[in-house]
Amino acid sequence: MSRVQANLLLLIAGAIWGAGFIAQSTAMETLGPIWFIGLRFAIATLVALPFALVEKKRAVAPVRSGDRMGFLFTGLALFLAAISQQVGLLTTSVTNSGFLTGLYVVFTPILTVFVLRKRPHWIIWPTAAMSTAGIFLLSGGAFSALTTGDLLTILCALLWSVQMISVGAFAGRSGRPMALSVVQFAVCALLGCTVAALLEPISLSAVKGALPEILYAGFFSSGLAFICQNVAQRYTTAPQAAIFLSSEALFAALFGVLLLGESISPAGYAGCAIIFVAMLATELVPELLKDKERAAAAA
């Protein structure tokens, strides 16, 4: 596979995730947000299971008990992130949800200071300030205009950061990324269906009404897109992967305007641009400086 083809796969993954915000929003016209999460991840579990079984056959050692607990913790973080995002979509737009969720690109390295005790690259601090300014503009130029859904989505971004740090720790240590995927999806499915059964009504007609969105989110957003990412990143660089995958925010805004008739104010467009630049700078500046240091050392 060429680098161009790999980047195209990453762009497809970004488009799938961007369109996933539409599915998540429209599904709640007939189905409760927590039921949607439970059913979505039940399908995602089935999608990942065959890959996990193949991985198990090739594994040289069983998963350690400590890693199993890590898998469960990762699943809990994923569930809390998903429910924050899904419930947030009740009172925020697809466009805002897409961009605010993308703040995990900035939150993740900041969180490593407190969790892993590792000092992030200096670029993190200005990009965090840029992201805050972007949120200010995206909210309409006043923090009082931030909806409950916007705040829940920012919480979602923080929880995604916890989930990403957990994946980095336990998938690498165990050598079983597909087993981790199945466990975290299964945890989300079990918790989602259990909590939904206690809090939300359910009917066959409601499930049938949201079935296209459930299937899309379960099979494509939680299955195919991650497969595209895993395959493509073998043939391209991490900074390029970050650029193409972060396109999910742009696709979320595009699909929100085209399919749902949402609109963005000029200040909102400026805020989106600032957040997007902050995400790119977080990924690209450290790599560019490394290249300059290597060139200087070789001279």
Automatic annotation (TrEMBL):
Membrane topology type: Multi-pass membrane protein
Places the protein is found: Cell membrane
UniProt keyword annotation of Cell membrane present: yes
Primary location: membrane
Pfam annotation, one family: EamA
Keyword Membrane in annotation: yes
Domain of life: Bacteria
Residue ranges the record marks as coiled coil: none
Keywords: Cell membrane, Membrane, Transmembrane, Transmembrane helix
Transmembrane segments: 33-54, 66-85, 97-116, 123-145, 151-171, 178-199, 214-232, 241-261, 267-285
InterPro entries linked to this entry: Diverse_Substrate_Transporter (IPR051258), EamA_dom (IPR000620), EmrE-like (IPR037185)
Domain EamA: 7-139, 148-280
PANTHER family linked: EAMA DOMAIN-CONTAINING PROTEIN, OS03G0707200 PROTEIN-RELATED
Protein name (record): DMT family transporter
